[in-house]
Amino acid sequence: MSAVPRLSELPSNLRHHVGWWVRDRFPNRKVVREVQGVTMVLPWPHRLPDYAGNGPYGQNLVQLARALAEHAAPVTVLDVGANVGDSALQILDATDARILCVEADPYFLEYLHLNVDADPRVSVVEALLTPDGHTEATTAVRTGGTTRFAEGEADDALPTVTPARLLADHPDFGDLRLIKSDTDGYDVVLVPAITEAWGGARPVLFFEYDHRLSRLAGNDPLEVWPRLQKLGYRDVAVWGNGGDVLGRTTVEAIAERTAPLEEKVGVRAQNYWDVAVVHEDDAAGLAAIEKLVPASQQLG
Predict the structure, then answer these.
(1) Which NCBIfam families does this entry report, sorted A to Z (predicted)?
(2) Does residue 203 surpass a pLDDT of 70?
């Protein structure tokens, strides 16, 4: 009879899934973790420490905020889908910033407050940010360390707020410099709506671009690009979902280069991108993404 292998003898991907299965049994256990040099309180099942490790995961956003702050500090950031505050904490650790965090999941809000409330540079809005203030997607669907909202019977979200209302309630963020959005499929409709509300501020846009989740949320992922083009946005820097640089393109050309986002890379997984989009009149924003993803490195 063959011996049952020890956990340490299993392949790393299988070890991760076994560990996640165990941790998922204890969703309310709080742990303190150091993630890429920043200490934070997390629910034990949260996947962030596993994804981040010592690699580039999530550091593109931090580097972008730091590059923007070199031109004008503090850099003002809107963090939509703030989750446990990990992005805000890492940006504040790296550079001079003021951050408006928006989160709608009561489960993650507890951790967000634990992590950022002591810092006067951070403001928290407990609401679901929607383009028009009306949505039937009020049920929180949690997977690992992230939440998407879907239609359902359970109402596990907070009241909605529109981008225009958010700006009216927080006029001190009128000079918004950077929008970060990670809302699992709603980014393609939220980001243009936020950009329109902030009008002449012309913030740099950073969001998760996921074809599968966008369609799951009922949104066409390709419609975001002509909307942003009409708003005067032009240059796009692209990273893989692990934070690796993929290259540069434009809002006009990117739709023709999205074929990799339709390919499965595992049993169920598909690729997604992190993208940073810069207005055609934003010289400082263009300099920032040029520093991180040179135009000479074209997206294939």
Answers:
(1) fkbM_fam
(2) yes
Domain that holds residue 91: 52-292
Mean pLDDT of 238-252: 95
Write down the pLDDT at residue 56: 84
Number of domains in the chain: 1
What is the pTM for the complete model shown? 0.86
Q: Would residue 263 count as lying in a domain?
A: yes
Query: Rounded CA gap, 115 and 101, in Å?
Result: 12
How far is 31 from 45, CA to CA, in rounded Å?
9
Q: Report the alpha-carbon distance of residue 58 to residue 37 in Å, rounded.
A: 13
We report the CATH number of the domain holding residue 284 as 3.40.50.150
The verdict on whether omega for the bond into residue 74 sits within 30 degrees of 0, i.e. cis, is: yes
Give the pLDDT confidence score for residue 83 in this predicted structure: 94
Q: CA Rg, the chain, in Å? A: 19
pLDDT digits (tens, 9 = 90+) for 144-199: 445 444 455 555 667 899 999 999 999 999 999 999 999 989 999 999 999 999 98
CB 20 within 8 A of CB 13: no
Contact in structure between 140 and 149 (CB atoms under 8 Å): yes
Whose structure tokens read 């280069």? 257
Task: Please give the Cα distance from 79 to 102 (Å, whole number).
Answer: 6
Query: Does 187 map to a domain?
Result: yes
CA torsion 18→210→79→51, rounded to 10°?
30
Q: What is the DSSP string of 75-110?
A: EEEEEET-TTSHHHHHHHHHS-EEEEEEE--HHHHH
Round to whole Å and give the CA distance between 202 and 195. Answer: 7
How far does Cα 43 stand from its chain's mean position? 18
Q: What is the pLDDT of residue 25?
A: 76
* Residue 133: alpha-carbon gap to chain centroid: 21
291 is written with which tokens? Answer: 């520093």
Return phi, psi of residue 255, to 5°. -60, -30
